[in-house]
Amino acid sequence: xxxxxxxxxxxxxxxxxxxxxxxxxxxxxxxxxxxxxxxxxxxxxxxxxxxxxxxxxxxxxxxxxxxxxxxxxxxxxxxxxxxxxxxxxxxxxxxxxxxxxxxxxxxxxxxxxxxxxxxxxxxxxxxxxxxxxxxxxxxxxxxxxxxxxxxxxxxxxxxxxxxxxxxx
Length: 168
Hints:
Helix Hairpins; about 170 residues
């Protein structure tokens, strides 16, 4: 570059000197690109974590609903058994209702166990994803600005060279 210094028009020198040292921006450019990629990965992890948390919360809500249903069925069964003692003429109808209530009750513990299992799995997955999050220095705006500045240096150098070649 020194052998051409002073021999080229000033605008060409001003554009070519930063371009000649563009390699000195490589680490900064690579860091900015990595930060953007890391940020995208973090956003996906956060989204997955939040999805697992939502699934766990949904399981909790379903468990509560099933527990409430179970308590309601148990109260209903007790009322039906009391009615059976008072109303012998309706014994057959009441016994059928008790059989149905018993069947419904038998379905709830396995459903609760499955939901508990799902809740634990989703909670562990959300926690694992949460643990993998880490802070990223700088902002997306800063990283994009660094990349834009370096691109402008290259574009300016190419424009000046094209204009100079057009003059020949």
